[in-house]
Design a protein that fits this description.
This protein is mainly alpha-helical. The protein contains 23 helices and eleven strands. The chain folds into two domains: about 300 residues, no CATH class; about 170 residues, 2-Layer Sandwich (Alpha-Beta Plaits), CATH 3.30.70.20.
Amino acid sequence: MLKITRVIVSLLLFAAMVLLLVTLESRIATAFGWVARLQIFPLALSGAITALALWLGITLLFGRIYCSGICPMGVLQDIFIRSGRLTRHTRMRRRFRYSTPRNKTRYTILTIVAGSAVMGLTFFPSLLDPYSAFSRIGSEILLPGVQWLSGQPVLVASALAFAIAAVTLAAVALVAFRRGRLICNTVCPVGATLGLFSRWSLFHFDIDTDLCVNCRKCERVCKAECIDVESHVVDGSRCVNCFDCVDACDSHALRYTTRRKRLSIPMMQPVNNAASPAPAIKSDKISTEISDSAATQAKATGEPVKIDRRKFLATGLIVAATPALTAIANGARRIQAIDRGSKPLTPSRYVAPPGRHSMTAFLERCTGCGLCVSRCPAKVLRPSSNEFGWLHMLHPVMDFDASYCRYNCTRCTEVCPTGALQPITVEEKHIFIIGHAQVEPDNCIGCGLCVERCPRKAITLQPRKAPKRGQSRGVATVDTADCIGCGACEYICPASPIKAIVVNGIV
């Protein structure tokens, strides 16, 4: 029952996420916007500390249910894993087996990602964040496919973004097909963070040694490769709560419970005195007796009770991770404190989308998921390459050669899940300064197209003071007090090869 519930919930949320990314109907996309706001990494960047703490609390109670049911990249890996099981070759051999955890790798990556996020360098975190990676796959691969099937023009926002999405999809498919959820438990920063908390979750998987027959069916279906049948231990930090093992166990030895079954097999009991082996007591009360005797012996001899090595290392990891988690929280609070007047307006050739609180907050919060790019009806947004620096690659940037920002459109601000673009009304959009238009008088041919297209009537055609031979008598002039930088003038300008009017961004 637990597995069926998990599969139904995960498929429904996965379908909603796919519809959000690929649907051509704007109303449907708006209706499923809440799915993107369930993801942990966007919540962390947006400064939603309460929602983030709620997810960590759920993990402490039930384990990593986020990874199995909510994360779209996790569900995508399950689809590839299932497709691998359906092939004739993989059906005839053992699918998975227990592997030792790669704690050094995943916690090193987690530290690097956390440090990069705190410093506002979001390119590396966005590459490894499961939500951002899946969103790029949907926006750059699935959406063009839907456009092609529906007979619409296929639009690829950026060759770089498409290449990154294609490589990510190929890598995820290959690793999931061969090693299951290895990416979740090795390179995924969200999985590593939740693994620190799921280790001590209230509900966990436990193996009843009285019922276990060592058939290894649970180990073969464990996509996280975290079930050690030899030791009868399930690694809670890597378990993604898929419940496949519970469904595969014919002897009902695996349970999802709050209680841990005490070992009753004599050979599996800890030995207190190697010279005098413990008697073969069949009762389950042996653990209580051993614990009492150990405490009595320690009190009589004055020697400290030995601490389990695994518990000691786990506690050390939590202590080591506490400064990083605190830094993330402080960074989120620092981002929230930024206002419009924190930095003076300085010109920049590259223009960011409307709705940003400030350029600093925009660069620090944006994950480059491409959701605003795919949902832009004007197709004026594209993923950046090096416009904002290589540490902020894939952030949306205005391309006024392709189109211009619609005067009454606020779609990009509505779909952003991280708060990099704050939701604004149409009235606020009319006065929101995206950039400033600037005229190069020597290139202006005086056609007046920019004057007709400007929605703010901020451009007028003025007589040229001293026209040279071959120049027009009129020249476009921009009233910077009314210009909002929508880019309609730059888009319509026929001057070639260099346009006479361009829009510069603001920082």
